[in-house]
Amino acid sequence: MNAPAEDVRAGAWLQAMPALFVLIWSTGFVVARLGMPHAPPLGFLALRFALSVPLFLVWVAWSRASWPRNGMQWLHLAVVGALMHGGYLGGVWAAIKAGLGAGTVALIVGLQPLLTAIWVSLQGPEHRIGSRQWLGLLLGLAGLVLVVLDRLGSGQATAFNVTLALIALFGITAGTLYQKAWLLPCDVRTASVVQLSAAFLVTAPLALLEHEAIRWHPDLLLAMAWSVFALTLGASSLLYLLIQRGAATTVSSLMYLVPPTTAVMAWLLFDEPISAAMVIGIVLTAVGVGLVLARQRRSAARA
């Protein structure tokens, strides 16, 4: 008797996961704006990872979640954690701290869905990406450009900070593809412990090279609390589940929605203006991602 109701609730949760992920993940730039003036980027992230691991361990103990039994899966989880948490987040935060404009960083990292699609399409005819998906990816990229266009001139691009942004792009792209190719389904809570521990081992030694001290300003405390509870325990867990359940290209396309959502948040929270070009870009991005996701919905319906 309860099975249909449980199935409905599970289906509703699966439908809500992408939107919830985009909404929470988009707060990352808002958190950076709050915390970055008061802490070095890698020091902030290393502390974030160090605080997140014990919380996940408590969650694991309370829920009695199972650990991966295959030693290679531990290694694969560590690689994904180093790439997606250490490489991506470290690259984004360090690039912005080094003077690269947030819009430029968003545009560089925003190439991820297109790079993922190109890589997947080269893996053989069974991984073929349809013409509507390609159209959706290109529309999403065009929308992203319009959204960040006004902010491309902010900051100063150097070989160093652009390289940091490219490291972030490589981290999120390679991490997504690596997880989809090598990781077997496992509990997101124990997987997060392994991933975040690996990310800490990557960022902590590099943080020791930073000369800026952490200043315990209220804005920093708020940014750290949100980063640990909402971004790491919430959004990062959702991203892991989305990659585990969906196609790499489909999940990556959600990243196109992050800069537009962030722009709306900045308008609401900081009264940053939204231009006509940004509105057009938001619409284009939404249409593009809708085209990419439509194929997954049709496949799920047929299944």
Description:
- This protein is mostly helical.
- The chain has one domain (3-302).
- 78% of the residues lie in helices and 0% in strands.
- It contains 13 helices and no strands.
- α2 (28-35) packs antiparallel against α10 (218-245), α3 runs antiparallel to α9 (188-207) and α4 (71-97) packs antiparallel against α8 (159-182).
- The protein is globular.
Largest sheet: number of strands, sense, barrel closure: none
% residues in beta strands: under 5%
Approximate shape: globular
Number of beta strands: 0
Mean pLDDT: 87
Order of helices and strands: HHHHHHHHHHHHH
Distance between the termini: 23 Å
Q: Tally the helices: what do you get?
A: 13
* Unreliable spans: 299-303
| Helix and strand composition category | mainly alpha
The share of residues in helices is over 70%
Q: Rg, please? A: 19 Å
As for the number of domains, it is 1
Could you list some keywords that capture this structure?
13 helices; disordered C terminus; mainly alpha; 303 residues; 78% helix
Task: Write a brief caption for the model.
The chain has 303 residues and is mainly α.
Topology:
Blueprint: H1 3-25, H2 28-35, H3 41-63, H4 71-97, H5 102-109, H6 112-121, H7 131-148, H8 159-182, H9 188-207, H10 218-245, H11 248-253, H12 258-270, H13 276-302
